[in-house]
Write a structure and sequence with these properties.
It is a single chain. This protein is mainly alpha-helical and 333 residues long. The protein has 2 domains: 83 residues, no CATH class; 227 residues, MetI-like (MetI-like fold, Orthogonal Bundle). Helices cover 71% and strands 2% of the residues. The protein has 14 helices and 2 strands; from the N terminus they run ααααββαααααααααα. A two-stranded antiparallel sheet has the order 1-2. A hairpin with a 6-residue loop joins strand 1 and strand 2. Helix 5 packs across helix 8, helix 6 crosses helix 8 and helix 8 crosses helix 10. The protein is globular and about 80 Å long.
């Protein structure tokens, strides 16, 4: 098991280095000029040249990349010679718009995204897996048809439709839930867990409607396939209780596709739930990425791209580790 995790961790580090290089190359060698973006819209060629020196773009490309990556290990000086300022570790550059350390921008946005993602993941996993398992156990009956029909409707509803509908009904019409406020970032703050729960309930539901529908369909299909396996028939022939057969034998083998989906979805959400954060005005990572793209703030966009890739890759490594626990045959791969 230790060797398996070490191999996966080494592959993760190598992949992160490749992604960092590709991402840095796209932003530095792409058609957009970072120096012109940093200088602003009304900027003379002389000031663009000064901005290139301040950003270190007068150096060879590989030197620029090495300087950028060194900021992830220790602080580095940023700016033109004679006017340099310290970018503290971990340094991902400084925002073109506010001259603020990009790390501080991400640190401010990440708690909001964690709050949105955390509750939504729990809600859609419990609802999706539970209802999918119930549909599989009631195959062909009214309960199964009702759950599958609801999942078909849910999977076809995009986040903008669900989110705006929830705001219209529960906030604007019934006034039973508050508008999402930026003052609450976690259940451990001054507002308390109750206010935190109500504050993020609508974003959670909007995400859960879409994702739980997918989990219902995958769970039902996977469990029905597992119920037909030889080891399940052997367990029933031995006279084992149905509850034990389903949970101890069926769920362990049948939920592996759900683990894969969950790992990918967690990575995507932590990288930024863009539409959800825009609709509910949550200033998380996705919200920050949209505003950075609109203002041409390349250091922020580049940092969010790499952070999103980091979460997706780490989630896949965790999925591999869970697979190794569920199925020992995976450890030999």
């Amino acid at each position: 098991m230790t060797g398996f995790l070490l191999r996966r961790s080494a592959a993760m580090i190598a992949l992160l280095l490749v992604i960092s290089f590709v991402t840095f190359s796209l932003f530095q060698l792409g058609p957009a000029d970072p120096a012109a973006a940093a200088c602003g819209q009304e900027c003379t060629p002389a000031r663009v040249a000064e901005a290139r020196v301040a950003l270190g773009m007068d150096k060879p490309f590989l030197t620029q990349y090495a300087d950028y990556m060194s900021g992830l290990l220790h602080g580095r000086m940023i700016g033109a010679p004679g006017t340099q300022t310290l970018c503290e570790w971990p340094c991902l550059g400084k925002s073109f718009q506010t001259n603020e350390n990009v790390t501080a921008v991400l640190a401010r946005a990440l708690p909001y995204t964690l709050s949105v993602a955390g509750g939504a993941i729990v809600l859609w996993t419990v609802a999706g897996v539970g209802l999918g398992l119930l549909a599989a156990l009631r195959k062909g009956r009214f309960t199964d048809k009702l759950i599958v029909g609801a999942a078909s409707v849910g999977v076809s509803l995009p986040i903008p439709v669900t989110g705006l509908l929830l705001l219209l009904v529960f906030v604007s019409t019934l006034h039973v839930l508050p508008f999402t406020t930026n003052a609450i970032t976690s259940p451990f703050g001054a507002a308390g867990p109750g206010a935190w729960f109500l504050n993020y309930l609508l974003p959670w539901v909007a995400l859960a409607v879409l994702f739980s529908a997918q989990y219902i369909r995958v769970t039902r299909s996977s469990m029905l396939e597992t119920f037909g396996e030889d080891f399940m028939r052997t367990a029933r022939a031995k006279g084992l209780a149905r509850f034990g057969i389903v949970l101890r034998h069926g769920a362990r083998a049948g939920l592996t596709p759900v683990v894969t989906m969950l790992g990918l979805d967690i990575g995507l959400l932590l990288g930024g739930a863009v539409l959800t954060e825009q609709i509910f005005s949550v200033p998380g990572v996705g919200f920050t990425a949209v505003h950075a793209a609109q203002s041409g703030d390349l250091p922020v966009i580049m940092a969010i791209t790499m952070v999103a890739a980091f979460f997706i890759i780490v989630s896949n490594v965790v999925v591999d580790a869970v697979y190794a626990v569920i199925d020992p045959r995976v450890r030999a791969v």
